[in-house]
Amino acid sequence: MASSVNPTVRRRRLGQELRRLREQRGMTAEEVADRLLVSQSKISRLENGRRSISQRDVRDLCGVYEVDDQRIVDSLMQMAKESRQQGWWHAFGDIPYSVYIGLETDAASLRVYEPQVMPGLLQTPRYAEAVVAGALPEASAEDVEKRVQVRLRRQERIHDRKSPLRLWAVIDEAALRRVVGGKQIMRDQLEHLLELSRLPHVTVQVLPFEMGAHPGLNGQYAILEFPDAADSTVVYLEGVTSDLYLEKAGDVHSYSVMYEHLRAQALNVEQTREFVEDIAKEYIRG
């Protein structure tokens, strides 16, 4: 469930405030770095929320920006303190995509395109285990289990009665055809997909092979939007060794337009359910 204090979101909001203060002073990140005898990259990471920020960092930056209002300083210091707290995912140890989990935990809506496998939030435990084990052939059984448990914990957002995540998923036909873990696991997975697709806050569309070329050929991506207008929309691109987070208005707009084209080219909701039901029948239980 979404926590009352999300350290990832706190870092983003704090970084946005610090960037605003710097821009009000008409200073560049390089000038601030020179004043504090730190690297320019540190200032950039603090502002984009990718780096943990200490109360001392906040104090020093407020000094450079000549912030006279102690209430503002105190508020930023409190945000810095909260940003160093641990989210629920820290209990599982070192998770490579912890930044994404923090964003997803606080998001109001998520639009995702998946070309190869089922979206993580819609996976069954057995399917998730097969996906993780296949994608990470050198991972230990313990690491595979940890990642599966994190994935299942993330799915709680779908079933949160008070504030469920609004999920829109466009899934390529390849994800339905790829036999992950065996035919029975696939049948169970497709039946699970059909069940979740009937939830009022979950929309599933399939992009069939016959549609040919489409804007999603470059791969998977997700668009996260947040309940607080102060939190900018984020486009998430998953990588093998590192992930990419895009927040510039132009980038978000481009990916949003691409997603609209994907939704337009995909089967509608009812057609998708019929399509998934037909494929599920092809997977005979063992």
UniProtKB/TrEMBL annotation:
<dbReference type="InterPro" id="IPR043917">
    <property type="entry name" value="DUF5753"/>
</dbReference>
<dbReference type="InterPro" id="IPR001387">
    <property type="entry name" value="Cro/C1-type_HTH"/>
</dbReference>
<protein>
    <submittedName>
        <fullName>Helix-turn-helix transcriptional regulator</fullName>
    </submittedName>
</protein>
<dbReference type="Pfam" id="PF13560">
    <property type="entry name" value="HTH_31"/>
</dbReference>
<dbReference type="Pfam" id="PF19054">
    <property type="entry name" value="DUF5753"/>
</dbReference>
<dbReference type="InterPro" id="IPR010982">
    <property type="entry name" value="Lambda_DNA-bd_dom_sf"/>
</dbReference>
<feature type="domain" description="HTH cro/C1-type">
    <location>
        <begin position="18"/>
        <end position="72"/>
    </location>
</feature>
